[in-house]
Amino acid sequence: MFRCVLPVAVAIAAALPAAAQVKREFPPTALRGEIVFASPPDVTLNGAPARLAPGARIRGENNLLVTPGSLAGHKRVVHYTVEATTGLLMDVWLLRADELANEPWPTSMQQAQAWSFDRAAQKWTKR
After folding, report:
1. pTM of the model
2. How many angstroms separate the CA atoms of 57 and 51, rounded?
3. What mean pLDDT is predicted for residues 12-20?
């Protein structure tokens, strides 16, 4: 039995650091902003009150889901998407240092519509 468990445990342990380094792909609708997490579902986004949508997904730097309650009181720079019909925040990604360095990144829909997005390279170019 131990012979079967050991290779699986080694494979999982080896995969964890590699998973943390995976390049995340953000949709072209993702904007960059500063969020302050309050009592869920309330947040402050770029200094204005906002709300998380029911079923909103918050992904940590390791791309695993994070509960909004565990972030209460924290201020972070994020990428986020807005649910089109309600204006509520749907997807939120807590950014790593390498993702923060990826500039420029639009902070408004007007910028996103005026710039070009290379989805494969995850790079925005101002036109």
Report:
1. 0.82
2. 12
3. 53
